[in-house]
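note to self: dont lose this again. the chain is below, predicted strucutre after it. 121 aa total, dont forget to put it in the shared folder this time
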Amino acid sequence: MMSDPALNQSLFGIDGAALELRSARMGLLTSNIANAATPGYKARDIDFAAALGAELHGTAADKAMAGATRYRVPVMPSLDGNTVDMGSEQVAFSENAVGYATTLSFLTARIDTITRAIRGE
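---
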């Protein structure tokens, strides 16, 4: 079930959109790492700023992510055509995980505030 993007944006602001994008990016990075030994695999990533900007300007989340997905340019080309650089992928994964946890903390605090307001505390 898809939720109303306008309602999510008003309740959760930029954090809701950011969490969704970070989750999608985590999936791409995980796929890159899992396919590090697959001949011909082309590593992909999401241009987070471009996707978030598009989503905040009304583009549907799936279209914003698709439009901001890019193939990585390899630092050192592989003989088998695989463009995964394990070091770069691990750094990107770690940075994204920290961003995800931080965004989740912001959302949790916002939900706690809304819950307290509803209860009248």
